[in-house]
Backbone:
């Protein structure tokens, strides 16, 4: 019986080649799009899930409020928090602190200096809480002693050469030097390479105790409730309700410190599950890679919609063909076939079509894989569908359930419709079309095109928003701005300011260089904060929080920032002694926050940051330091240099290789022994929109696929509708109907359905995209023309699709049509 089902199914597919090809093509494209999207979604959901303790690990975060207003939403807090929590709460099983060391340079242990290695300091408990297995060394003690360091395989190979992997254990006990630290670091472990799907990437993992040990120690890093520059993770006992623990944190905060005395603000601690750290991070001072839950879940919805559209096509075409198969069903029933057998027969046809489509979809994915990887800049594959996902579940089971459910549902309804035909009526020729079936097909077409129109509108709005943020004036000119990485291997002394100033002057003499300046941050970086800022004459409780930035005198000019009042920094404003600095610039937002009526009114006034006095000598226009997702913040600019300050070099862009070579030559003469490296600031700033740009591209790409699938269904339905009305078309032509009349006759029903789809899609699309735009502090207004254009696009695409058959039918010889009928 089963063999007969398969044989009959294949015969029917061969008999209806056109409809079979349309069904298989639509399902193949839909499944391929779904599989491609699910690879990326599965990868994003798999972040940090390789950690065996992931369900019980949480990071400690805190919000700061002043006068009821949120002024900081960050992941950094005090060095004592983790230990204090473990001491106070039995629910806390373990804790670890981590501290980013930035990009580090290996200055010994290899033939040449190796730079750009991400350094992370961590407590020894880091290795027991997180899963970073060692292939050499003892994880129980590897990070216990100061100046201990663990190297991932890739870093060890980079430092010691390609043959190092032959005997990793031989590297244990060897030493390397980092940056300016005169004390060598002892290699205590070699770890497996850090997975790509981690929000805690590192090239070097050093012992946290290094920070508070030795002559250059950072005492606050040991156990302190005043300096909030540290990241904490805690491991709870399995089964602990972390929300219940969170409820105890306000009392914990009061026991150990009062935020109003430390930062002039109210502090609220909370816990974030490790599984949410990558996708649900809107925190400042984020330590690692972050993604967007909005993008991931949005793409997942798009994947589901695309495959639903494909299955709707199948249901539509299968039920539309039911009239042609009515006689077959009648004969089968008269011959003794039961309703169950007929249902199994038609489900077998559905299964064969879906399995064939799935095989073709996998082939499409195989060919499209490189393009997807280039687009998302990850090494994805179908293997990611089997990765452990968010909250520990695997997306594979959901995908399998979706495909099985889709195959069953898309095959079951047509099977029920076909098996329900009454054989007596069919064989007597008294069977008529089902009104319910026609209405179902119309409803499904409306649903298909409503989804398609929503996707088109979404693509337009995402494109417009990305275009808007890219074209918006930042208040400064970052074009053709070369950023030379700082001379970190040069020691600070009283001559450094003169040397760096002279270096900037020498750069100006290079053909192709317009100017140079230094700053402790560049566009796109997170700025530091001062919490206790007030006017000198203001009462103690009139405190504000502001960002701060250190700049050289040429910074304002080379970035083209407008001075609104007062003057810029000059050489006399600088000093190697911090205590001698007293002049400052503020931005327009800071002047408003401090209560000055105009920028000019702030000139000559004094402000306090903590207990240090600063005299305002100038006010500059507001600039966008970060992406347009965030509002401009009040900022103080200080006249300060540092060996870790990057150097901004404004270039013309002409003969770029020669210009960079000349800059390198000057750099090496002024700062011998340092590594010369550079990047362009506009590339870094534009990377802030990387996730949104990816979302826009993927949205547009898969919206196009959704349109293609919907059109395949419309193509099949119009083909069937035209075939059913062949005799009517012939009669109308004989009676004088013109070709446009006939095309309109065959098209108007479909146009009506698409108009209804537009009416349903418009409010849904507006609501979805309005909520998406809320993530941007600066955003476009959703214009009505977007909806009009999207609706017209759907109409035009439908017209072209339908007209292929309508025009052909209208041009056919009516005599032949009547004879055929």
Residues:
């Amino acid at each position: 019986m089963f063999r007969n089902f398969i044989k009959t199914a294949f015969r029917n597919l061969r008999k209806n080649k056109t409809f079979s090809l349309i069904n298989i093509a639509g399902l193949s494209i839909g499944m391929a799009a779904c599989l491609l999207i699910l690879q990326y979604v599965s990868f994003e959901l798999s972040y940090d899930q390789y950690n065996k303790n992931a369900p019980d690990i949480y990071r400690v975060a805190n919000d700061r409020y002043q006068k009821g207003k949120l002024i900081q939403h960050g992941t950094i807090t005090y060095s004592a928090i983790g230990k204090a929590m473990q001491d106070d709460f039995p629910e806390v099983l373990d804790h670890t602190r981590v501290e980013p060391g930035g990009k580090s340079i290996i200055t010994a242990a290899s033939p040449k200096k190796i730079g750009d290695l991400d350094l992370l300091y961590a407590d020894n408990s880091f290795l027991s809480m997180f899963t970073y297995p060692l292939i050499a060394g003892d994880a129980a003690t590897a990070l216990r002693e100061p100046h201990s360091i663990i190297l991932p395989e890739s870093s060890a190979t980079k430092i010691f050469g390609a043959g190092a992997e032959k005997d990793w254990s031989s590297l244990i006990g060897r030493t390397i030097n980092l940056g300016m630290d005169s004390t060598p670091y002892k290699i205590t472990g070699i770890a497996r390479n850090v997975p790509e799907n981690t929000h805690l990437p590192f090239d070097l993992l050093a012992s946290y105790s290094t920070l508070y040990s030795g002559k250059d120690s950072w005492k606050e890093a040991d156990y302190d409730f005043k300096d909030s520059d540290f990241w904490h993770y805690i491991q709870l006992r399995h089964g602990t309700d972390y929300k219940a623990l969170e409820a105890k944190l306000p009392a914990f905060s009061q026991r150990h410190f009062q935020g109003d005395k430390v930062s002039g603000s109210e502090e609220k601690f909370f816990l974030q599950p490790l599984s949410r750290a990558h996708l649900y991070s809107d925190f400042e001072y984020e330590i690692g890679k972050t993604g967007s839950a909005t993008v991931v879940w949005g793409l997942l919805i798009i994947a589901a919609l695309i495959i639903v559209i494909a299955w709707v096509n199948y249901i539509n075409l299968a039920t539309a063909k039911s009239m042609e198969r009515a006689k077959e069903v009648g004969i089968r029933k008269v011959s003794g076939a039961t309703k169950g057998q007929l249902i199994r027969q038609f489900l077998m046809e559905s299964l064969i079509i879906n399995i064939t489509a799935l095989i073709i979809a996998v082939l499409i994915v195989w060919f499209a894989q490189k393009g997807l990887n280039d687009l998302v800049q990850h090494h994805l594959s179908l293997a990611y569908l089997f990765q452990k996902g968010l909250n520990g579940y695997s997306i594979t089971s959901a995908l399998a359930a979706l495909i099985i459910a889709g195959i069953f549902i898309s095959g079951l309804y047509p099977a029920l419709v076909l098996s329900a035909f009454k054989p007596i009526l069919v064989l007597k020729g008294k069977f008529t079309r089902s009104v319910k079936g026609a209405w179902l097909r119309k409803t499904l077409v409306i649903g298909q095109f409503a989804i398609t129109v929503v996707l088109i509108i979404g693509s337009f709005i995402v494109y417009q928003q990305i275009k808007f943020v890219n074209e918006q004036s930042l208040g400064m000119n970052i074009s053709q701005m070369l950023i030379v990485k700082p001379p970190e291997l040069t020691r600070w002394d009283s001559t450094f300011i003169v040397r760096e100033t002279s270096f900037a002057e020498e750069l100006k003499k290079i053909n192709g260089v317009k100017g140079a300046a230094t700053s402790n941050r560049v566009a796109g970086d997170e700025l530091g904060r001062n919490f206790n800022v007030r006017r000198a004459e203001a009462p103690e409780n009139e405190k504000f929080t502001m960002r701060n930035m250190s700049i050289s005198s040429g910074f304002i000019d080379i970035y083209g920032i407008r001075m609104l009042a007062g003057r810029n920094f000059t050489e006399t404003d600088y000093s190697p002694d911090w205590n001698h600095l007293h002049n400052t610039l503020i931005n327009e937002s800071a002047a408003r926050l401090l209560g000055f009526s105009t920028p000019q009114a702030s000139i000559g006034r004094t402000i306090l940051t903590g207990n240090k006095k600063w005299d305002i000598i100038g006010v500059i226009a507001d600039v966008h330091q970060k992406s347009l997702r965030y509002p401009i913040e009040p900022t103080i600019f200080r006249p300060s240099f540092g060996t870790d300050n990057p150097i901004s070099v404004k270039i013309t862009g002409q003969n770029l290789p020669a210009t960079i070579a000349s800059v390198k030559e000057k750099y090496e003469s002024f700062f011998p022994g340092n590594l010369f490296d550079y990047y362009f600031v506009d590339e870094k700033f534009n990377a802030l929109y990387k996730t949104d740009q990816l979302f826009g591209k993927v949205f547009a790409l898969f919206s196009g696929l959704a349109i293609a699938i919907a059109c395949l269904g419309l193509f099949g339905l119009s083909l069937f509708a035209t075939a059913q009305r062949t005799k009517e078309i012939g009669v109308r032509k004989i009676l004088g109907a013109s070709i446009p009349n006939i095309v309109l006759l065959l098209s108007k029903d479909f146009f009506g359905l698409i108009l209804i789809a537009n009416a349903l899609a418009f409010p849904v699309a507006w609501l979805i995209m309005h909520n998406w735009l809320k993530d941007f502090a600066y955003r476009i207004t959703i214009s009505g023309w977007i909806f009009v254009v999207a609706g017209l696009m759907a109409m035009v695409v439908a017209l072209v699709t339908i007209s292929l058959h309508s025009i052909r039918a209208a041009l056919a010889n009516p005599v032949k049509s009547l004879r055929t009928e």
User: Anything to note?
Assistant: The first strand starts at residue 57 and ends at 66. The longest helix spans residues 339-376. Residues 481-687 form one domain. The CA atoms of residues 493 and 576 lie 8 Å apart.
